[in-house]
Specification:
It contains 6 helices and 3 strands, in the order ααβββαααα. The protein is α+β, with helices and mostly antiparallel strands.
Amino acid sequence: MLNYSTDFFQTHSIKYIEMALRTDRIEKITNPDGYGTRTGDCGDTVEFFLKSKNSTIESSSFLVQGCMNTTACCNTVAKFIQGKTIETAWKVSPEKINKFLQTLPEDHFHCAELAVGALYLALTDLTSEKS
């Protein structure tokens, strides 16, 4: 059983808590249309997997080796792009992730940058011509 202090729940927004603890998007998609991985200076690693049809992201998931802040950021990215056009996905930014989560610690803004960076690599892979 997970043990969180009362302080955790009083310190963070409900959106942050939901995104930090959500696990249904954490999975590897076999044969993704787009894949991107990035490791941050902090040592956290993020992998994004995208499936698309008709320029729409039908499915997105991720794997993360890192802190709860990185997980919250990755879940937010996946929430923002699910069912959206590829063009819209390119507009996701670390600032939008931070604003949505409301209580991402300032010293963990790099987690939002890491998640968005992995997304951009997956989008680049998705839109590149495959041999």
